[in-house]
Amino acid sequence: MTGRTQKSAGMDVFKSRAFLVIAFAGALAACQTPGTQAPDQAQQAPSPAQTSDAAQPEGASPVQSSAAPASVARPRAAVRASKHMIAAANPHAARAGLSVLRAGGSAVDAAIAAQLVLNVVEPQSSGIGGGGFLMHFSAASGAIDAFDGRETAPATATADMFMKADGSRRKFHDVVPGGISVGVPGLLRMLQLAHAKHGKLAWAKLFEPAIKLASEGFKISPRLHALIKRDRHLKKFAATRKYFFDADGEAKPVGARLINAPLADSFRLIALIGADAFYSGGIAQDIARAVTAAQPNPGGMTVKDLENYKAVARPPVCSFYRKWFVCGMGPPTSGGITVQQILGILQTRDLAVLKANSFDAVHFIAEASRLAFADRNRYIADPEFQEVPVNRLIDPGYLAGRAKLIRADQSMGKAEPGQISSGSADLGSQMEGAKGLSTSHISIVDSDGNAVALTSSIENAFGSRLMVRGFLLNNQLTDFAFVPVAGSRAVANRAGPGKRPRSSMSPTLVVDGAGKLVLSLGSPGGTSIIGYVAKTIIAALDWDMDIQAAVDLPHFINRNGAATDLERGTAIIALKSSLEAAGHKVRTRPMTSGLHAIRVRGGQLMGAADPRREGVALGD
């Protein structure tokens, strides 16, 4: 099918900061100004020298003993810095990124170093066997770049690849383990593409921290141990069984040292040759062999599929939110559009007068989320295969009309998608990555003021459970719709050769009226990522909360399903009865986000790491 080029609203705004200022001057008249609360409190950023496997640095989230903690840790203020900062999902990764920033590296350089270390210490979440999306802000020009490293389906993929012979759909966990779920990894090509444009240090140097850690080993954290212990697929494959379990078949204990010599060797080769070492030659052959020989669920990936993979520089999706400009990643992820739809629908309401965790705040945001997810499920897919009406979906007039559907005292129930001309069909009940135990996010600001928001993933925790040369392969093809036809129309997010499955990853950058950076943020969490990011933006901008407090705030979301979800074990559960009285069907569940964010204010960098995981913000 012929590819289509999308043109996103706001994509050219950052080419001229003067234009941005003029645009804001006109737009502000129609925007409400948020109220103010207590300013961010100071806290010294810790020195990496103070950290160890046994004791995390001050300002880090305590390591959770469970994969899905029942409650959020006690409140604390954001970490402050004045020169540069990184917030990442593991202290090892944050330290690696900070060392690169201290060496004069750019935000992209630090992101690469941190991401490679995450592959070592957080193998269940992300790595070179997966993909991701990277947003970059250039302080000098105000330009925002968006890089797409989403996995692609191999040439053998078919729309009904997850269907049974009798026409029924296969179950999610029946197809996750093995080769059929593996997409062609895109992370390395994307990182190299971003490095070619925004890197300062040599490519090979960025691999040094990860090579050292993989060679010398790291101590298993309580969180990683819990995830290994509870996983029911890792023992099905020899490589993962040997790496994660002892001779008796028990998960290696907390504090045991994991050494990954094959991964260190893979990194050395890629550092020397570049991403081509991954997409051709011995590594590519081993990936294709692992996929096609997998039992259960052999797949059809070939070396040619890997050789043909291309990362893509795409236009960012940008729109005004009150006096700010919010930019996210466009399709094939739904994150940028859907976050901005939620914010745009809420544009007509003065959220600043509402209190966090109040009935009105939760009700209005949840109802806006219903409407946004209805459109998401109908219209968003890989733009090379499906025309996505980006401009229409984030058009202020269209969203103002959608906002009129929200009642102040009663839930609308399941929302219908808006009327936009498109040949696509609804996704139905398929929710990609809904459990959200994998995926990772990094936010960085370097000493020149450039910023990165990078969200990466191998989809389900431990991906396909296939390990090749020390890294896990993704199961991202399960992000396609399992049922390819809805009614009489083909589903937009159906599988197909070379197609990128729809994602919910939402790396986001926010700037002010002068084109200056305000926020870099994102999160793991499957389809709940969208709600996590939207809530945090509202808390930071409308409620002017300390960025750490905004990250800590209890979660809630409605994905246009039956239930409005409230985060179990938090104060927001007190709203259950009042929401039910207003017609919400309420479900309480763990909502293990991994928000990492940096806010810029008054020349200060303020970083936050989600207490629901084991991340940390570090800076100078």
Q: How would you characterize the largest beta sheet? A: 7 strands, antiparallel
SS-derived structural category: alpha+beta
User: How big is the Rg?
Assistant: 22 Å
Mean pLDDT across the residues is 88
General description of the model:
- The structure is a single chain.
- With 620 residues, this protein is of the alpha+beta class.
- It has a single domain (13-32, 72-217, 259-407, 455-619), classed as Gamma-glutamyltranspeptidase, small (S) subunit (Glutamine Phosphoribosylpyrophosphate, subunit 1, domain 1, 4-Layer Sandwich).
- Helices cover 30% and strands 15% of the residues.
- The chain has 19 helices and 23 strands.
- The strands form six sheets. Strands 1-22-21-17-16-9-8 form a seven-stranded antiparallel beta sheet. A seven-stranded antiparallel beta sheet has the order 7-4-3-11-10-2-23, with helices on one face. The protein has a three-stranded mixed beta sheet with strand order 18-19-20.
- Helix 2 runs antiparallel to helix 3 and helix 13 packs across helix 16 (396-403).
- The chain is globular and about 60 Å long.
- The relative contact order is 0.20.
- Residues 1-71 and 423-434 have low confidence and may be disordered.
